[in-house]
Structure formats: structure tokens, C-alpha cells
Amino acid sequence: MDQRRTFTAFVVTLVSALVVGIAGAASLKSPPLREIRWTDHDLPRAETVRALTTEPAECLVTPVDLAQQEKIAIGRAVFRSPLLLGGQAARAGVSCASCHRAGRGNPHFVFPGVSDAPGTADVTSSLFSSKRGDGIFNPRPIPDLVVDPATVDRNPAKTDLNRFIHGQIVEEFDGLEPPAAVLDGLAAYVGALGGRCGSDVARTAMAEAGEVKAAIQAARQFLAVPDQPAAHLLIAAARSALGRLDERYARVSGIDRRLAARDGELQQVQALATTAPTSAIGALDRWKRRFDKDTEAMVAAQDRSFYSARMLEAALLATHSP
Description:
Blueprint: H1 3-19, H2 45-53, E1 54-55, H3 66-79, H4 87-92, H5 96-99, E2 120-121, E3 140-141, H6 160-172, H7 180-192, E4 201-202, H8 205-224, H9 228-248, H10 255-275, H11 277-300, H12 309-319
Antiparallel strand pairs: 1-4, 2-3
Helix pairs in contact: 1-9, 2-12, 3-7, 3-8, 6-7, 8-9, 8-11, 9-10, 10-11
């Protein structure tokens, strides 16, 4: 089967499995945040709340060149999407950003069978890779992509970083061959990580919605080429970000229905992108106008969502109550 068609089918199928059903978890006692699965369960509750409602400030050196900025935006979107990876990592919802929060490290990351101490991962685990799995449990500290010594030349004039990231996706995580433009974007994003870093910042609906819109904008650009496999992956990244929003608003009546509707529409756009990319562009433009209104509603209701430290702490407390 054609690799491009295989990749597209994988993205469409798996993103539906990752997004659909999140709202149903709202009836459960615990907060339906996928990240809790790989957040150190021995953390004090207050530290868990902080870990889930803040993240490191992103240290990104933004170039003047507009084309390079577009590449970085593409890389940034897929860096946060589990659909980039394959196998168990993708099915669990783990993305590059799960280990490298905002391109940094993650001192609280613990994944069964892959981590021992918090903040470690076995990059040659057979759980994630059929190619690099060595049968030896040897977790290593997760590197900070900003401050740790570079092991790969990040000079954009060379291809070292592209080859390294390609190996991470295809070999370390059993991912399918990424579209060339997506791989270039990832290399541009990782290569731009650096410079001065600020303090941790609050995670907000506005910021997460911005990630959805950035992924949609990148998908729109790929549809104009057209590069359908890349467009599918970016729409999938947008749907994945919608899923993260849905988790945060799982107990806010009305917002959950809005997000479910927007996801269903994007699923239809994915199908349209395969046969009529120009029509899909128009559909995305109309979709964005509706999502802009959804964003206003989410910002207004943020204090009732799991972006709120108060709401999240109350839910975690109820989870552990007798």
C-alpha cells in the first residue's frame, strides 16, 4: 500500500480513538486529564495541581524570516500531537511535549515500564520500539532541549537534526514516515529552542485554543500546495489539541457540546481534504470563525474548568476521599 495513504489512514483512525469518548469520562470521579496517567502519583496534591495547571515558559528564538516562522509553527503543532508518534506512545496519547514540556524536560514524567525515577525514560524500550528495543531496562534522565548540551548539530544549513528527529519518530517510537514538510518543521522548531527562559506560566484556554488555530492555519497552507498527508497530520494535531481542551471542560455544560461539534466538523474536513483540498480550505475558514466564538465562551468559563487550580484540586481531593 502507498506509504502516503497508509499514513493518512493511520492519522484519521487513531485521532478519532484519542478524541472520542473523552467527554464520557466526565461522569467519573477523577478529573479526565490524560496527563495524570504519566504524572508522578507520589507527588503531593498541591504539586500535582501545579504540574497540571502550569508549564515552563517556552524559550523560542523567533527568526525574522517569515518562511522559517511558518516552519516553526508547523513543528510546534506536531510536537504537541501524539499522532506524530506510533505504536504504544500514540495509543496512550504521549507526544514529544509529554516528555519535553514546552521544549524543556518533565521532572514528573513516569510511564510504567519506561521510567524508574520521575523524569526518566528508557529510549530503547521494547514497549515503544520494535526497532531500538534492546530488552534492557535502562531509563535515562529526560533532557531539557533548551539547556542540556546539544548532541546533534542544530545548524539549519545541515541535515543532522532532520536525520536525528526522523530516527526518533520512525525507530524509537515506531512511527510512520512523516511528510517531509512536517519533518522540516520539527527540525526548525527544535533548532529554534534556546535563549533566555522565564518563569513557569499558567496553562490557559486561550493558549490551548491558539495551538488549535495554529495547527489549522498550517493545515490550510498544506491544502493549498496540496500536500494532503501533511494537511491530515496538522488537522489531526488540531483535533488532538481540541481533545486537551475537552478534558479541561469535561464538567462544564455547553462547552463540551461545542467542542464535540467542532471535532466532528474537523473529521469531515479530513475526509474532504483527500478528494477536494480547495473545498477543504473553505471549510476550515468557516470552521475557524465558529471556533473563535467557542474560544470566547471557554475563556469566560475558565474558572469552572480544570485550568483552574481550585477546581482541579477539589476534583483530586474528591478522588482520594473515602
